[in-house]
Amino acid sequence: MALRRPMIAGNWKMNGSAELAKELFKKFTAKLENDSAEVVLCPPSIYIESVRQQLEANKAQLNGALVRMGAQNVSQHNFGAYTGEISAKMLNDAGCQYVIVGHSERRRMYGETSAIVADKFAAAQKAGLTPILCVGESGPAREARRTFEVIAEELDVVIEKNGTLAFDNAIIAYEPLWAVGTGKSATPEQAQEVHAFIRSRLSEVSPFIGEKIRILYGGSVTPSNAADLFSQPDVDGGLIGGASLNSTEFLSLCSIAMSS
Ligand SMILES: O=C(CO)COP(=O)(O)O
């Protein structure tokens, strides 16, 4: 077993259906044969309950595979007059263990600042969820050699609010904006360089957490580039968008993570 158990998280975004979950589980039960990687499904909130029910119904046939539920977003507030929002406790009640916070699509299209993301991270943990914190630079920022600066800023705001020790119960996903949904993945070397930077930043305060935290790569991961990405020393699996909607591809990514 690797030092850190690899994780494959499927972020369906605003895609998929209850049927997709059925198809996935049909393939999972035939092929997911061990617990050497953790698999997280993050469907749209409205499907969390039905996907979780299918997970329960198929548990006996999953051969020990670790499949868990996650959500794509959470409110930073505990309860109240926030129309359309879902609290961390509600996600926990619905059977989620994980929640994505700070995805670039939410930062960019819904005005989520790093300060809001830090609050969401805190709200998730308070309700017993593990946040999957997304960070990543834009194409122009990379061209201007500002990658580390952007990542450090996004991380530091969360660290300042929550403390480094909060990362004992968190996952980080490095998702360069120029690679998300573009078909142009980061190279394994580019991913490794940023993952090592993130790990060293956390290690400065806590070598234990730096060593332990799982850092996923996200951005145009497919079965054809996953093995090279996941075999990098600081890449602990992937946060998968498009390929999580194809049950054959997603299962294949799970198998690659299990053997990485
Ligand atoms: O945004 C992503 C996962 O959160 C990545 O999306 P793609 O895998 O479609 O590039």
UniProtKB/TrEMBL annotation:
<keyword id="KW-0963">Cytoplasm</keyword>
<feature type="binding site">
    <location>
        <position position="181"/>
    </location>
    <ligand>
        <name>substrate</name>
    </ligand>
</feature>
<dbReference type="GO" id="GO:0006094">
    <property type="term" value="P:gluconeogenesis"/>
</dbReference>
<dbReference type="InterPro" id="IPR000652">
    <property type="entry name" value="Triosephosphate_isomerase"/>
</dbReference>
<dbReference type="GO" id="GO:0005829">
    <property type="term" value="C:cytosol"/>
</dbReference>
<dbReference type="Pfam" id="PF00121">
    <property type="entry name" value="TIM"/>
</dbReference>
<comment type="pathway">
    <text>Carbohydrate biosynthesis; gluconeogenesis.</text>
</comment>
<feature type="active site" description="Proton acceptor">
    <location>
        <position position="175"/>
    </location>
</feature>
<dbReference type="InterPro" id="IPR020861">
    <property type="entry name" value="Triosephosphate_isomerase_AS"/>
</dbReference>
<protein>
    <recommendedName>
        <fullName>Triosephosphate isomerase</fullName>
        <ecNumber>5.3.1.1</ecNumber>
    </recommendedName>
</protein>
<keyword id="KW-0413">Isomerase</keyword>
<feature type="binding site">
    <location>
        <position position="220"/>
    </location>
    <ligand>
        <name>substrate</name>
    </ligand>
</feature>
<comment type="pathway">
    <text>Carbohydrate degradation; glycolysis; D-glyceraldehyde 3-phosphate from glycerone phosphate: step 1/1.</text>
</comment>
<comment type="function">
    <text>Involved in the gluconeogenesis. Catalyzes stereospecifically the conversion of dihydroxyacetone phosphate (DHAP) to D-glyceraldehyde-3-phosphate (G3P).</text>
</comment>
<dbReference type="GO" id="GO:0004807">
    <property type="term" value="F:triose-phosphate isomerase activity"/>
</dbReference>
<dbReference type="InterPro" id="IPR022896">
    <property type="entry name" value="TrioseP_Isoase_bac/euk"/>
</dbReference>
<feature type="binding site">
    <location>
        <begin position="11"/>
        <end position="13"/>
    </location>
    <ligand>
        <name>substrate</name>
    </ligand>
</feature>
<feature type="binding site">
    <location>
        <begin position="241"/>
        <end position="242"/>
    </location>
    <ligand>
        <name>substrate</name>
    </ligand>
</feature>
<keyword id="KW-0324">Glycolysis</keyword>
<comment type="subunit">
    <text>Homodimer.</text>
</comment>
<keyword id="KW-0312">Gluconeogenesis</keyword>
<dbReference type="GO" id="GO:0006096">
    <property type="term" value="P:glycolytic process"/>
</dbReference>
<dbReference type="GO" id="GO:0019563">
    <property type="term" value="P:glycerol catabolic process"/>
</dbReference>
<dbReference type="InterPro" id="IPR035990">
    <property type="entry name" value="TIM_sf"/>
</dbReference>
<dbReference type="GO" id="GO:0046166">
    <property type="term" value="P:glyceraldehyde-3-phosphate biosynthetic process"/>
</dbReference>
<dbReference type="InterPro" id="IPR013785">
    <property type="entry name" value="Aldolase_TIM"/>
</dbReference>
<comment type="similarity">
    <text>Belongs to the triosephosphate isomerase family.</text>
</comment>
<feature type="active site" description="Electrophile">
    <location>
        <position position="103"/>
    </location>
</feature>
